[in-house]
Amino acid sequence: MPGVDEDSAVPPLRITELTVRFAGLTALDAVSLTVRPGTVHALIGPNGAGKSTCFNVLSGVYRPASGSVRFGEHELTGLPPHRIAALGVARIFQNLALPPRVTVEDSLLLGRHRLTRTGFLAAGLRLPAAAREERRHRERVREIAAFVGLERQLDRPAGSLPYGQQKLAELARALCMEPRLLLLDEPVAGMTADERRRTAEVVAGVRDSLGISIVLVEHDMGVVMRLADAVTVLDFGRRIADGAPADVQNDPAVVRAYLGERLDAEETDR
Ligand SMILES: Nc1ncnc2c1ncn2[C@@H]1O[C@H](COP(=O)(O)OP(=O)(O)OP(=O)(O)O)[C@@H](O)[C@H]1O
Known about the structure:
By secondary structure, the protein is of the alpha/beta class.
C-alpha cells in the first residue's frame, strides 16, 4: 500500500543526552540513540528501566530536565502532544483505546481528523467539496483496513472484535494519521501466539511497504529479535547497549541486567 503524501519523507529521530528526573530519581540518564528512517528500533530493558518515560518524552507528555529530541529539523522537547502528533508522530498505547461501540470504519475516519481540510461545518452543510473529501478519506480508510487485514470488520463495533483484531484496528487508526514515526508500546502483550505472529507481520509490513519508522517497546524477545533492525537497551535509566539485535542479545551487560531481573523475581516469589 503506498503512502498518500509525496512530501512526507521520513527524517531520522535523534535523541541526544536525554535526562528525566522525578523527585530525586533519575528515570533517564543522558540517553542517546538514533532511529534511522524506515527502520524498527526496539527499546528494551528490565522493569523500571525508563522505556515508558522515554515514550512520554517523545510524545510530549513529559518534559526532560535536559537533552534534545530532534525529528528532522524539529525539536520535539517542549512541544505539546498535539503539535508532536501534527508532525507525524503517532503513539499506540498498551491498553485498548478505541471506543468499543463505534464501528471500526468510523474510528478510522476519526483518525483522519487531523488531515481534514473542509472541516465539520462544511461536512454538516453537505457542501460538494466536503462530500468529495469524505469519499477520499473513506477510500483511504478502506485501503488501510485491508492493509492490516480488517476490511471485513469495518462495519463492526470495535468492542465486538477479538483482542488481537482490536489491537490491529488501533494500529490502523494510527496509520490513518499518515504518520512518519510510530511509537508502539508493547503491541503484542496479552496476545495469543497466532495474534502475535500476525501483528509482527503487519508491523514489518508498515516498515517495508510504507517506509514509516517505528520505535518499539516490547518485552517479548522473540518479537524484538524478529522485527527490530536496531536495539537500544536501558537499565536503571542508562543506555547499556545499542546495536544490531544479535550483538545486543549476547552483550554481557545485557545478559547481567536481565539475569538480575530474574533473580529479583525469584526473590519475590519466595
Ligand atoms: N510520573 C512518575 N513519577 C515518579 N516516578 C516515575 C514516574 N514515571 C516513572 N517513574 C519512575 O521512573 C523509573 C522508570 O520508569 P518507566 O515506567 O519509564 O520504566 P519502564 O522501563 O517503562 O518499565 P516497565 O517495563 O515496567 O513498564 C521507575 O523507577 C519509575 O518508578
